[in-house]
Amino acid sequence: MQQLSTSLDSFLSSKEQVAVLKGAWGVGKTHFWDAYIDRKIRQNGLHQIAYSYVSLFGQSSLEGVKAKVFQQARAVQAKDVIEKAFDESFSESTSLMDRVPWIREGLSKAKRRSPWLGWFSKHADSIPYLTKFSGLIGSVEYGLVQDYIVCFDDLERKQDSLSIKEVMGLVDELARRKHCKVILIFNQDSLSCEEEQKAYETYREKVVDIELTMLPAVRENFQLVFDSASVDFRPVLRVAEELGIVNIRVLMKMKSTLNRFDELLSDVHEITRQTFATHVAVLAWGYFDQDPHLDFRGIVERLSGNPWLSYFSKKEDEENPADRRFRTISSNLQLRGFDLDPYISRYLESGLIDEEALKRDLEEISQNQINLEVSSKFSEAWGIYTDSFEDNLDEFKDALIEALGDLSRVSLGDFLSAIDTLEEFGEDVSGYVSDYLKVHQHSLGMVDRTHPMRYERIKNPALRNGIDQIADKAKSFSIDEVAEKIATQHGWNPEDIKYLESLSKDDFKVWMKSSPENLTVKLRGGLLMFRDLQSSNPEDGKRYAAIVQNVETALREVASENEFNRRRVKNIYEVE
User: Fold this and answer.
1) Distance of alpha carbon 56 from alpha carbon 54, whole angstroms
2) Who's near 254: CB < 8 A, 6+ residues apart?
3) Which of 61, 237, 519, 570 is most buried, judging by how many CB atoms fall within 10 Å of its CB?
4) Distance between CA atoms of 278 and 268, rounded to whole angstroms?
5) What is the C-alpha separation between 156 and 57, in angstroms, rounded?
6) How far apart are CA 110 and CA 104, in angstroms?
7) Does the model's pTM come out above 0.85?
8) In what order do the strands lie in the sheet with 181-186?
9) 453: how many CB neighbours lie within 10 A of its CB?
10) 3-class DSSP string for 438-502
11) What pLDDT was estimated at residue 264?
């Protein structure tokens, strides 16, 4: 911002009177100006007698704006300089009232009580026979404005009853007749209508001497919000630079979201924290900023449905703009689906966090940290691809093959990306596919084949055929398997709901009495999660309610067996 500061220095020391500071919404124009003018005042670097900041947000009349110019003034010179200027301006502003001496006398009393800026109208109001002349007092106040620096902010947020013509006329008067330096801060593209835009263009030629555009570098604005010592600094900065985020409001939303989760994530592994910060930054950008091609829901859907998009371009006619935009972002940030994405999305949309559920998921993530370390090997491999133009194809392939070393720890998303890429470069991946099908037989049987974005990502024919065979065999449902799937994967297929809906309360009771492993998790995090679930589809809502009713009835029957079970059911499952 040094160039902008230098240009403002030049403006303040020149004969030019009116400057416009413009820029996109949220880039920090007001923040920059406030810091700049405060520094100039502290350094005694101004020749004017006072500084007045006036936000036009919600202002509806020119008289109101004029009053604020005086009433919100801040002295920037010594007291004696102010008093001398005040005396001269006061004398001039009251010269027309010589023929009404009692009014002049009252104003003089008010002036003697308040020789300092900002208090004149307060003391004038305390003179009994002046209270009925509030308009007169306002005129006198405005008459006292001479040789100020005046900043008008938020021009685009004024009321329609206050026209651009009136504001620009006031600016011109302050500059030419009252020897003020005037700075206008606004986003020109946000003026309320085309007529206002044309009016501004017309008066700009006559009134404005210099226009300055604020084009901050990403890192400059980022460092205004994030402390370089913060654990989140690097991952969020990487997102900001990738997406070109200079909007301070959006950056502050990212920070506030991270702060809200900070205590809950205090003990997580560094990799988990970095991944979380990256996803908060991407999702907050999607929610609070408006990308022309990729909206928030589009990001959420693609993260949940396509954990890792290929780095290699499809044919242009196979992709829509949202796919292309997300593919670029995900490849450059090595972005994949993350177990905590639903918590981030829900918080951004509603401000709510299910802390108990989050703690359970974090515990599971902590227990599976080795999986995340394996996942980091894939990130390192993709880094070889994205971070240089060296002739290092063999190094890249070797890194992917090394990451595939322990297939039991490799997620489906990472596996798909790796084998698709290795096949692109002529590697035989059939052995990896065969082994992966054996190792992950249970989880692959739960792949949602009805979800197009998830299922169609599986390009390898042998892998897809193997998953189909496993899924077909797994159609012999059991309560235990379905409950565990819902509790651990936080998801279900339509077939799961249809199966659970077909069960009676006796079916659930028999299962509960069989002492299944991790019964509490399967009930609280699985079957009973439908208890608080809201659905936009009334039919789904009825199905969920029917399942919960049967499960709770079974629990009540178990509770009726003895006092110990009654306490268990009440305290653990909140069913009486």
Assistant:
1) 6
2) 225, 236, 280, 281, 284, 285
3) 237
4) 15
5) 8
6) 10
7) no
8) 73-75, 50-55, 148-153, 181-186, 18-22, 210-213
9) 13
10) HHCHHHHCCCCCCCHHHHCCCCCHHHHHHHHHHHHHCCCCCHHHHHHHHHHHCCCCHHHHHHHHC
11) 92
In this prediction, residue 145 carries a pLDDT of 84
In the chain, what are the helix, strand and coil shares in percent, each to the nearest 5?
65, 5, 30
Q: Give the per-residue pLDDT at 216.
A: 86
Are 386 and 331 in contact by the 8 Å Cβ rule? The answer is yes
Query: How far from 479 is each of 7, 269, 569, CA to CA, in Å?
Result: 72, 34, 19
Spatial CB neighbours of 400, under 8 Å, sequence gap ≥ 6: 378, 381, 418, 421, 422
Q: How confident is the model at residue 183, as a pLDDT?
A: 96
SS (H, E, C) 272-332: HHHHHHHHHHHHHHHHHCCCCCCCHHHHHHHHHHCCCCCCCCCCHHHCCHHHHHHHHHHHH
* CA–CA gap between residue 358 and residue 364 (Å, rounded): 10
CA distance 102 to 130: 10
What are the phi and psi torsion angles at 55 (to 5°)?
Answer: -85, 130
Interatomic CA distance for residues 215 and 22, integer angstroms: 9
pLDDT of residue 142: 76
Model pLDDT, residue 352:
93
Q: So what's the pLDDT on residue 130?
A: 39
Q: How many residues does the chain have?
A: 576
Regions of the chain short of the pLDDT cut 50? 94-97, 99-100, 102-103, 106, 110-111, 113-135, 307-313
- For the chain, the C-alpha Rg in angstroms (whole number) is 34
- Which of left, alpha, beta for 136 (phi over 0: left; psi -120 to 50: alpha)? alpha
Distance separating the N- and C-terminal Cα atoms of the chain: 64
